Amino acid sequence: MLNSKFEDLKLFLKGKKILLTTHELVDIDGLASCLVLKFFLNRFISSADVHLFLPEISKSTKGFIQKFTEKFPNITIPLEIEFKTLKIDIFLILDTNNLDQVAIPDINNSVIPIIFIDHHLKLKKNDKRNISLNIIDDKYSSTAEIIYELCEYYNVELTLPYKYLLIAAILTDSGFFKHGNNDTILRISKLLSNQLDYQEIQSTLKNDKTIPEKIAKIKALQRVQLIQEGNWLIGITNVGSFEASVASSLIKIGFDVGVAYSEKKSGYRISTRAKKYVCLKTGLHLGKILEELSDDEISGGGHDGAAAIQGNEGLEELLAILIEKVKQSLSK
Ligand SMILES: [Mn+2]
After folding, report:
1. pTM for the whole structure
2. Ligand 1 midpoint to CA 29 (Å)
3. Where on the phi/psi map is residue 244: left (φ > 0), alpha (ψ -120 to 50), or beta?
4. How far is the CA of 227 from the centre of ligand 1 (A)?
5. I want to staple 247 with a disulfide (CB 3.0 to 4.6 A). Which of 25, 199, 271, 303 is the partner?
6. What is the C-alpha to C-alpha distance for residues 87 and 174, in angstroms, rounded to an integer?
7. Residue 219's pLDDT band (boundaries 50, 70, 90)?
8. pLDDT at residue 107 in the model
């Protein structure tokens, strides 16, 4: 339970000038968590002055915003703000705990305190920074669920648009309950109502894949390499981009663990996925493995069944160690 942290948060934020932000290439969870938390803070901590900064928004999130604002034209999503001149007291960073993913200039060297609210495994990387409070728990399938729990804890009643945002975020981040648990389903059922129809929300989240993405997946499947470890099957393949979506496809077609990597001039990126029951049965935790492989130049982490890592050099060596560690976990 996060209740004592929610109490701390209230104390920290009283009378403060707050800048709310999330990771770059904002996804629906990052967006919804920011918007709902802003609504909450304005209602609940009237002495706080809350500003929202959204960095570059991902393509699919833009599509979602369009549908959302058609349905709820009264809610404005501030896509650009000038925050450099604001005298911020505290940064509130949602849906990531890795400062490399935050688009605030020079945040690593700033002395302004930080609060993270996130559901990705905690990274040790930011230890040098002044972190006031971490509300980080990877038992939640989305940051939106933590924000919802905060609203519930303080009895702040959400209006329809904000409930809609939370539902959309929870559904996308839990992979439509695939990575969720009983609490995920319970929270969604509390948020749904006669005015918020599940099928309708689900249809706004449908994302037609582009032709380049479809081709990337098909080509990746043509060159996939199969490794068998006991009763488990690991698939490894490479792509130009869309590695996350390719790694998920590997799981869908029958691999227990999927690894897809891409290599560009700017560096490489490895996405990994594992079936939930494989993680539960063997203790495999991809996020922990990738976090262990991280250093100053390589940054990785995530969840038990979905994690990624990126770096500039030593891709082959890293892949070999990664596969070895995955095999070790699977053979336990
Ligand atoms: Mn998330």
Report:
1. 0.80
2. 5
3. alpha
4. 30
5. 271
6. 36
7. very high
8. 84
- Supply the CATH number for residue 140's domain: 3.90.1640.10
Among residues 149, 159, 181, 32, which one has the least CA distance to residue 94?
A: 32
- Cα-to-chain-centroid distance, residue 290: 16
Q: Is 112 helix (H, G, I), strand (E, B) or coil?
A: coil
Range of the domain at 275: 211-330
Rounded Cα–Cα distance for residues 116 and 243 (Å): 27
168 with 198, same domain? yes
Number of structural domains the chain divides into:
2
Same domain, 22 and 64: yes
Q: In which region does residue 102 sit, left (phi positive, over 0), alpha (psi from -120 to 50) or beta (all else)?
A: beta
DSSP string, 196-216: B-HHHHHHHT--PPPHHHHHH
Instruction: Give the Cα separation of 222 and 250 in Å (integer).
Output: 11
What is the whole-number distance in angstroms between the Cα of residue 97 and the centre of ligand 1? 11
Q: Tell me what pLDDT residue 207 has.
A: 76
What span, in angstroms and rounded, lies between the C-alpha atoms of 297 and 316?
15
